[in-house]
Structures
1.
Amino acid sequence: MALLEVSNLTMHYTTRVGDVMAVDSVDFTLERGRALGLVGESGCGKTSIAMTILKLLPENARILGGQIRFDGVDLVPLSEDQMRKYRWDHISMVFQAAMNSLNPVYTVGDQILEAIQHHMPMKERAVRKRIAELFNLVGLDPAVMDQYPHEYSGGMKQRAVIAMALSCDPSIIIADEPTTALDVIVQDRILKQIDKIREELNMGMIYISHDIAVIAEVSDRIGVMYAGKMVEFADTHTIFKSPVHPYTYALMSTFPSVKGDKRELVELSGEPPNLIEPPLGCRFHPRCPRVTAVCQEQDPVFTEVANEHFCACWNQRS
Amino acid sequence: MNNTTVEVVDLKKLFPMAGGLFSRKVRYIHAVEDLSFKIQEGETLGLVGESGCGKTTTGKLLVKLIPPTGGHIYFNGSDVATIEGGALLREYRRKVQMIFQDPYESMNPRKTVYDIIAEPLVVQKVGNIVERETMVAEMLSGVGIVPPDTFMFRYPHELSGGQRQRVAIARAMVINPSFLVADEPTSMLDVSVRTGVMKLMLQLRKEFNLAVLYITHDLAVARYMCDRLAVMYLGRMVELGETEEVLQNPLHPYTKALISAIPIPDPTFTREAIPIKGGVSKPVDPHPRCRFYDRCPVATDGCEKLEHPPLEDKGSGHYVACYEV
Amino acid sequence: MWKVRVKLTAKSLRANWGMFAHSKLGPIGLFLIVFFLLFGLVHPLYLVYRGSDKIYDPVVGFAYDLLPEGNPHPPTLSHPLGTDILGRDILGQLMHSTAKAFMLGLIAAGFGVLISTLVGSIAAYFGGFIDSVFMRLADVVMLFPLIAFLVALSAAIEITLFKLAIILAILMGFGGTTIILKSQALTVKVKPFIEAARVSGGGHFRIILSHIIPNVLPLSFLYMMFGVTTAIFSEAILSYLGFLNVRMSLGIMIYTANDSGYLIGSRLGTYWYLWLPPGLIISLLCAGFYFVGRGLDEVVNPRLRER
């Protein structure tokens, strides 16, 4: 049984100007010890999915349907009190730009201490020992535990935030753009570290990023998101070498690379749509080079097109 | 034969650091030091490096947003480094323009698209109201915002990121400059939108025969956009050469490490990252020796004692600043 | 071209109005202001309606029509709010004083905010020495002993409401508001579009006038509302305490009543028409401008808007 099974998940926000269909009938699974990459552009819903899984939704958001099965238990109907037992202890998250949200007036150690004690009552000495363990795990010198965030470099801050997410031994970590604000050399190191941790602790990971290159390197399987819907889901190799959804194909062709042939980049016209009034039918049809009449009327269904390869398109490539 | 539009010689910029409450001694950040390069008409030079390497500062120096501490900036032959204001500065601003990184914040939110693009024309007193309207409309079409009349009187918040950056390009190009400094113009745009803007810039470069300084931290983008690359580290240039040559055959240990760390969007490609210790810091009153010494995997005792290595031609225009090559 | 600009301005005004109307306090405040503005403007018509200036002039009139009854006189048909101790029609006084209060508030706050906007923007843009000079000046102004100054001044010259307006304008202009507007101007100054304006060739004053000040103005307008409140209220208190040498104002009305001993003990109730009307108008007028200011909060600060 998969560690995490998301089926038909739908969530929307109510705003003054209309309902934002942030997540629309999304399906995917995550196995223990494996890494899933969620890739897409701004507004595609990848962060929204993470927040929905953890049920960290604002007042004006509603889950309209679907299931989130964690180890067999559906999280959707759980109350806030029940959900609290799952957050951090079983499913944990490294938020986008979390490294910038470290409180500057407390030492990093104190902040992790607070996070741990909030979930597991432990004596301070035991917690400090645990933090030292965590620091070793993420590649930080335990001695810097008592320093302040401004004394940390960007890479160090990110490691500290990852340590915080690992503190209660979760089985799944969701990392939202974990290396976007970091320089390339530091990014490389952090990604390697995260991968090492995943193997060592046999954790499930969900990486969220707009950077296809990063996702290619860290994920076993990839879900491509567009305008709140998942348009393709398959293992990494398939997504890159034989994508069938026109958006996935366009995304791959639009990324320049430093290695390999210098090829011509494909231009995609238009912009990602407004989620309050998404286009009728397939949300990608205004920009799709393979659009036909049915695409403008009916929303394609997410179906299995090959073994463990899913796609939502009326005119998929072969 | 192409002319040299811009030549920078030994450009230097120091920023004083606050000495603290009781300290009298002022410390300096050596943001840019001993920087020299040329850009020909119609050529794009990429300035690449990680944060803090001095590339943005160089861009600002070339556009004269900040004054240099030392060195020369030759534009079409004359030294503009010491120009502070007046008619000479305005002349310069007619020929040298900039595209900024943030498509939202680089436009006054209270001005219409027309006002934004017409601003250089108004300030430089080009044309009358009727002529300006035509020029702006032409420029809008030229950057792919059609029909121009629909967009002319919109506000920036009514445009998408890609559209805003196109407007920014129109603003820079409307007075027909000969040199453009582009500071990370696509890094804040959605991935699927970047290609369009990049292609637009390539097309305009050809059409107007522009010299371009393209500043970016993304080497993959630099590969696509630039003819030559200059790699900067802690304020100094460590490698310079033709793009493909530098990327496929890097000589400086920093360049090698940098390129090896870039993720490749191809799952069949195995990448061997060259490990280097430490992280990027600020060049505060740096040692006169090679600035990469502390982290360099091939540094020798010689490197510790000698001054920062000069840029040397290792063959066919590929320059490196390193003693161990 | 200008046709399009007019249309655009109309569109943005309509959008701002929508936001303003959405806040509950804003329209209430606006209603109060408009009501009292009309109230004040109607005074000349009132005089015409009443006919006799000898009786109804707010400063030198006398209730000849009520003789032989004494003054102050409780409300009657011919004097709906009664008369004050000197036999002057109170309703007329109120209208006259309200109009003057508007003038005082708008001139003081208007010029004051004009000065602070300019000074704040210039200080923020140039920084350094100019900035220090204006900020130290602001510190000094904020410590200024207004009351002592006014007392001394009123011994020397007659302080009309207009002169008071100018004094308040200068104090507000170089004082605390400048510091606030300078901060706002600073947030604008560091934005990339200012750099873009410089690269386009803009000189200092073009950038200050065309780019910085328009982005500071919404906040200036907001503080102007609060400034009016301050001006009207300050005048009322100063007049009430007897420090001003003004012939007629809302504060003077209360001062007159107090000075003649009509506000003590049980007289407070009997002679309510001497103090309640002006007091109420002062409060409501100040509240009106304050509410409008609060209503403008969302309009001025896009970050406060609901999602």
2.
Amino acid sequence: MLPEQFGIVGVARSEQTTKAWIAAMKKAVQEHSRDEFKQDVWNGLAESMSYVATDFADDEGEDAVVEVLRGLDEQRGTAGNRVYYLAVPPAAFETIVTELGERRGAGDGWTRLIVEKPFGHDHASAEALNGILKQWFREDEVFRIDHYLGKETVQNMLALRFANGIFEPIWNRQFIDHVQITVAESIGVEGRAGFYESAGAIRDIFQNHLLQLIALTAMEPPIDFTADSVRNEKVKVLRSLHTPGPKSVVRGQYGRGFVEGDEVPGYRDEEGIAAESTTETYVAAKLYVDNWRWADTPFYVRAGKRLARRETTIAIQFQRAPHPPFAEIAGDGMRPNVLLIHVQPDEGVSLAIGAKVPGQGMSIRTVHMDFLYGGAFRTGLPEAYERLILDAMLGDATLFTRADEVDEQWELVDSIVAAWRRDRPVFPNYEAGTWGPRSADELIHRDGRSWRRH
Amino acid sequence: MTHVAWAPPKWADAARRTLAGLEERHPSRTILLFPEPRGADRVQVTVSMRCYVVQGVSQEVCSEVIELRLGGRRAQAPASIVHPLLISDLPTFCRWRGEPPWGKPELEQLVGICDRLVVDSSEWPKVPAAYEQLVTLFDRVAVSDIAWGRAREWRGRLAALWPGIARAERLSVTGPKADALLLAGWLRSRLGSGSRRELELALVRRSAKELSRVAVDGVPVDVPRGSPPSPSDLLSAELDLFGRDPIYEAAVKAA
């Protein structure tokens, strides 16, 4: 898929040669590529790769990068087109964006800037970052990446809803009892202690992935599939989201426990974590989308680390059948219909329906109609980043987050965090390897509902 | 569905035999857990898939079987191993072989992930005392008892004695202790207030491997026709059930 006129330039502070960097990249590709490593393909790619060791705090550093990029224009015909991928610490963001902006030549080709999370720490800092970006780049040149949006199943949510006539008429408060979104990780902080201590689950997962999943689930049909049409609809959802009150959000932190058979330490015992840390590793909330489609329909969401299993799902639970005309005993097995969208792992969709158990009498049992990507399509699924980076190269921002979406996401998070500042949590409050704190169960049990168990 | 079976070494062969007669009827993922708490601290896994041609359908039905040997401390943390293997949103049945270790982490954890716990109280050495422990699980998980299922036809025969049976004073049972206790508990709970002490139905039991004779006040009850169901049949029947069984629960409380 990559054009001939293409080159990759690695830029970082670490002193190393291009040769050493290419060797490190080769090793990474061999370890992590979803396809079999092919030496001839790699050789072609490696020819286009170079490395610049520089510090952006130093003016000469940028000049060195510009020089390499101009060299690529001449050698590989890249025509001044640039995709900058910024996976940089927040402290370096302003300097780098400014330096890149200042060095844009009038006659250059197009420029696209991919910005990794965290995009800010709160609304004010995100607004400041957006301000810096706006100073040098147009909004259509900025690609705020949320890799969840690159996952096939997340995009399939749009196909499911808007390419099928049967779902949209029932996709509303009249037919849907509630929605549950789970972003569960079984891993701990895995060497990201520094970042995680200041971010916690609410900034690491809730502010971006979770809220984007809600937006895609709840948005109105866009008039077309262009970036702005889709993002216009998403931002309306984000703007209309609210929590009914502080009791509708709970947080937790894991203690020691067992995950996949291994005994694991509690969060406070992880390397680099403060012994009295009050950073949350779990957050659950009840949210409402205040519009005609969703009024009074709760969206229960939860995200956390060291949970019982790795799983990201969107469960649409429909209203129960109003009056089952069966004998009392038959109704024992009757559960509401659930449309379950598996985002990861095992991407696919399943619909739970009640069916008669063969034999005498009328016994009802839940069965599933399943669609698994691996079973229906024999092609491998692209990694989310593959899809998103290619989209950015093509200038398609549909699956990237726009500035106003980020604003709305942070406004909600700020309101939650503000309430948290008023009390000191008693942590840890859930064992590693479980589904989170008891208070999360209470949150949903209060409404006579329960979390999906697995 | 996901079918989880907890089988201490003593029960391992029986668990495999029952499973062999079950897979064809219940397409499932079966997770066989063999605890070896005195073994080395490790997990050993064997995975197999068994497929069967279904009569009248041009497709095969396949069952996955995952055998896990949980050594050392791993035997105390089965849920953490089972959880990632459960099939999302499908019911999970847990068959517990032998008497559960009441209050121990392995039982508590599996109860927490199961929709239905299937036991066979005839495998328990300490009935009726163990029923008091079992009762504490009723509000947390639906419970099935194969000993209860095994006596189903006999309950039918006893029910046919209504209304005369309402005046019964003595129930004589030849069979496993659990089966006899549950039959007596069922009669007490159906005919009286459900409290063991308040009822005067006496149970006289003669030990036997199978439930072979029941008499009310000395009068033998008709023996159910046909051969008794196999262990696979009994477990299979339990796997078709959902929800709590209030009649069984009352029988246990009155046993």
